Amino acid sequence: MYLSFTLTLSLIMEPIHFQRASGSVYCTIRYDEREQCLCDSWDGKFGTQDNFQKVIQKTADLITQNKITKLLSDQSRMEGSYDGSNQWIEQEIIPVVIKHLKRHAIVLPKNIFANLSAKDYVKQQGKYEVRLFGSVEDARKWIA
C-alpha cells in the first residue's frame, strides 16, 4: 500500500501543462511537496469554458485519486471570466472533491472579469474553507 501511494503521488509531481491552440501554456498544475498541496497557476486567457473545465476536471481527479486536502490556485495572471462554469463546478466538481479537500486558497486575478468570477465562486462555497488573497506569499502562509 505504501508503494502504491508513493507511485501515485510521484505521478503528479511532474507539472501538467494545458496549452492553447497556439501551443502557449494557459495553466500548469503541479504538486508542492513543501506545502503538501496541489497548485494550479493560470497565465493569460484560457479561451473557452471547455479549456477552463479541462483544468478543473483534472484538478478534481488528482484531488480524489491522491486524497489531497489543500489546493492553491494562482489566478493572478488569469484573464477572462469563468462565470459560465461556476454552476458546473458547484454541481459536478464540489460533490466529488469535498470528500478530501479542506482548504482552497485563491490568489485574486488582476483582470476584472476573472476577479469577479473568483469572488462569485467563493460566495457560492460553504462546503470547504476558501479564502481569497492578494499575493501568492499570503496564500502559501495560510495554506501551510
Could you outline the blueprint of secondary structure elements for this entry?
Elements: H1 2-11, E1 16-19, E2 25-32, E3 37-45, H2 49-66, E4 70-79, H3 83-97, E5 103-107, H4 112-124, E6 129-133, H5 136-143
Parallel strand pairs: 3-4, 4-5, 5-6
Antiparallel strand pairs: 1-2, 2-3
Helix pairs in contact: 2-3
In short, what is this structure?
The chain is of the alpha/beta class and 144 residues long.
Mean pLDDT: 85
Known CATH architecture: 3-Layer(aba) Sandwich
- Put simply, the count of helices is 5
The total tally of domains equals 1
Q: Class in CATH? A: Alpha Beta
Number of strands: 6
Poorly predicted residue ranges: 1-8
**What is the radius of gyration computed over CA atoms, rounded to a whole number of angstroms?**
14 Å
The profile of the biggest β sheet is: 6 strands, mixed
Task: Tell me what portion of residues adopts beta-strand conformation.
Answer: 25-35%
Overall description:
There is one protein chain. 31% of the residues are buried. This protein has a six-stranded mixed β-sheet with strand order 1-2-3-4-5-6, sandwiched between helices. It has helices at residues 2-11, 49-66, 83-97, 112-124, 136-143, and strands spanning 16-19, 25-32, 37-45, 70-79, 103-107, 129-133. It has a single domain, classed as SpoIIaa-like domains (Rossmann fold). The longest helix has 18 residues, at 49-66. By secondary structure, the protein is α/β, with parallel strands linked by helices.
